[in-house]
Request: fold
Amino acid sequence: MTDSVPADQASGAAPAGPTDPAAWLTLPDVAERLELSISKVHQMIRDRELIAVRRDGVRQIPVDLVANKTALKHLPGVLNLLADAGYDDEAALRWLYEPDDTLSGGTAAATLGGDHAREVKRRAQALGF
Reply:
């Protein structure tokens, strides 16, 4: 019997850290997935509907924040609450992906796509106080 090797280790890529998303999309990939122009994706980032950070010199968006043909429903509200609490994009990303066993998804980002998204919004709102 052989042990399977995770795809990221087999390719030589570093595995995701505790605060890193498992996969990323470039902005053109997001535009294609959402069937929007690249300028509309840039506008969504400026409007805090999506979060993009530089990885290897390229602006990228965590793949799990783009659900199917839309951004996660509650993501813009959470991003605005985090910005109001003084979080920059990198800090907001760390907060979204920080492991938390008290959330049903294990992280705020994973929980945003489920039935307990309001709890994530409540916690983000509490950061401002």
